[in-house]
Amino acid sequence: MQDAVEADEEISHADISPELTKHFRGIRMWLPLKLYGLKPFRASLEEKLHLTRYFYQEINQIKGFETGPEPELSVAMFRYIPIHEDANSFNKKLTQAIQKDGRIFLSSTTVNGVYWIRVAVVIFRTHLEQMYLLLKIIKEKVEELSN
């Protein structure tokens, strides 16, 4: 932008981006699409959907766990139902223990007063190996908290 060139101040990226307001976020999507096409993006999305369904099926097979609705996208909800403790408080402690562990990050939500742990499989670095690790960590933390 010609007015920005003569300014004595440091150049603002807002003055030289195509929108003339903010940095050009769209290029992060546009450039890879132009370079590689849609096929790798579709494959990555399909992988994340499969990983979410895999997690949902596996956590359903572990005794003591309850799941939310079958995932349509890349988010699944689950919780552990302890025998001698309030499920909401236990799952809050479970979420905190998993987050404190630091190897995997899970978030939570409350629906109609019920505390759920959320798995959102969206990071491009997430693959089947991370799902194995997640299931292992969940089992470890449930055991630790139950003792």
Automatic annotation (TrEMBL):
SUPFAM superfamilies assigned: PLP-dependent transferases
Identification of the protein by name: Amino acid decarboxylase
Origin organism lineage: Bacteria, Pseudomonadati, Bacteroidota, Flavobacteriia, Flavobacteriales
InterPro entries per UniProt: Aromatic_deC, PyrdxlP-dep_Trfase
GO molecular function list: carboxy-lyase activity
Gene3D superfamilies: 3.90.1150.170
Example of a GO cellular component annotation carried by this entry: cytoplasm
Keywords, alphabetical: Decarboxylase, Lyase
Origin: domain of life: Bacteria
PANTHER family: GROUP II PYRIDOXAL-5-PHOSPHATE DECARBOXYLASE (PTHR11999), MIP05841P (PTHR11999:SF70)
